[in-house]
């Protein structure tokens, strides 16, 4: 009897915790939705996002940088969006309740500063075969589906959380991680969308294609069968040789004629900088090309990454000393008026 009562109490406690509204909603930001190929606010006004990628909240918390000052620096860069890359292994290690507390803090700080949030399930690999590029990205369909069920329940009514990026970078790594057709990937994505929405998620699902979230060519003949979604690309400079613009249009930019597009990772490193080994070697000519391309088409983008250890970084230490890409992108972001 005692054990049954205890189990009931623990089950109810977990249920109530998941269904508690997340923090930061005393003065909520307007809900973002999809209208045609645009993101719009609740008042119908179109909005284009210019944002920054945080590093994993778990990493930042361990290092003492998960605080409001971090978000205030983002605000000084004039970002109106921040992406939280949540690694499956960090989620499992910290545990759901503790990790949700980190996310609640971050969402609250962002909302107070007028910055919207992307929740990103940050895995790289093939969810169908369950083979990944590095152990930090290890997950499976059950954990992934459970994660999105949790996000739907916990953040579903939170208007600061505008986007759910369902899977960071799908890739078969030229067969090294097995096989996955677009039709198979599409089926998995559509199931994730059903799960997050059935559990109360009102944010916009973000969908990436293969080649490490670069290639959206299959959308032309077989789009995701769900309303109110947006598509993602990560057009790092090494993906295509210069000149880039026509190739970008062919590979992913054409999608903007029909659906919203958001580049959730954009960035470069010069040859002598951290990140050149990835490789994402380029210079400010890439920054000028990608920002001009996006500005001409009202395509949203999010810079990688607001951290000096991860690459390519926008600054080189925690005094926020700018890297070469930071020297280009910070003043560029400050030009925008929202």
Short descriptors:
338 residues, alpha/beta, TIM Barrel, eight-stranded parallel barrel, three-stranded antiparallel sheet, 14 strands, disordered N terminus
Domains (count): 1
CATH superfamily: Glycosidases
**How many strand units?**
14
Estimated radius of gyration: 19 Å
Please name the CATH architecture: Alpha-Beta Barrel
Q: Give the SSE string.
A: HEEEEHHEHHEEEHEEHEHEHEHEH
CATH-assigned fold name = TIM Barrel
How would you portray this structure in words?
By secondary structure, this protein is of the alpha/beta class. It has one domain (33-334): TIM Barrel (Alpha-Beta Barrel). It is 37% helix and 17% strand. The chain is built from 11 helices and 14 strands. It has helices at residues 2-19, 57-63, 68-76, 88-94, 96-112, 141-155, 182-198, 210-213, 245-251, 284-297, 324-334, and strands at 32-35, 38-41, 46-47, 50-53, 81-86, 116-121, 124-126, 131-132, 161-165, 169-170, 204-208, 230-232, 261-266, 300-303. The strands form 3 sheets. It has an 8-stranded parallel barrel, surrounded by 4 helices. Helix 8 (210-213) links the parallel strand 11 and strand 12. The protein is globular. The termini are far apart. Mean pLDDT is 93; it is low at 1-13 and 21-26.
């Amino acid at each position: 009897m005692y054990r049954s009562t205890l189990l009931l109490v623990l089950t109810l406690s977990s249920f109530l915790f998941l269904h508690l509204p997340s923090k930061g909603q005393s003065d909520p930001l307007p809900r973002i939705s999809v209208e045609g190929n645009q993101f719009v606010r609740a008042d119908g006004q179109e909005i284009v996002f210019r944002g920054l990628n945080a590093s994993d909240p778990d990493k930042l918390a361990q290092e003492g940088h998960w605080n409001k000052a971090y978000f205030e620096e983002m605000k000084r860069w004039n970002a109106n969006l921040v992406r939280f890359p949540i690694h499956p292994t960090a989620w499992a290690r910290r545990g759901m309740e503790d990790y949700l507390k980190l996310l609640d803090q971050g969402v609250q700080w962002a909302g107070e500063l007028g910055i919207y949030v992307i929740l990103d399930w940050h895995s790289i690999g093939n969810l169908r075969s369950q083979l990944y590029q590095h152990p930090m990205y290890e997950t499976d369909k059950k954990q992934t589906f459970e994660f999105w069920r949790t996000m739907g329940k916990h953040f579903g009514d939170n208007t600061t959380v505008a986007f759910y990026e369902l899977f960071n970078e799908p890739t078969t790594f030229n067969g090294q991680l097995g096989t996955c057709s677009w039709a198979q990937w599409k089926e998995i994505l559509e199931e994730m969308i059903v799960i997050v929405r059935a559990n109360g998620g009102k944010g916009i699902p973000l969908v990436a294609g293969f080649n490490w979230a670069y290639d959206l060519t299959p959308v032309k003949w077989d789009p995701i069968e769900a309303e109110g979604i947006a598509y993602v690309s990560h057009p790092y400079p090494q993906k295509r040789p210069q000149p880039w613009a026509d190739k970008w249009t062919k590979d992913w930019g054409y999608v903007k004629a029909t659906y919203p597009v958001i580049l959730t990772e954009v960035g470069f490193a010069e040859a002598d900088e951290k990140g050149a080994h990835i490789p994402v070697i380029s210079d400010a000519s890439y920054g000028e090309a990608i920002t001009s391309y996006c500005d001409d088409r009202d395509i949203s983008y999010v810079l990688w990454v607001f951290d000096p250890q991860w690459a390519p970084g926008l600054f080189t230490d925690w005094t926020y000393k700018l890297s070469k890409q930071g020297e280009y992108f910070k003043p560029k972001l400050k030009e925008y008026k929202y």
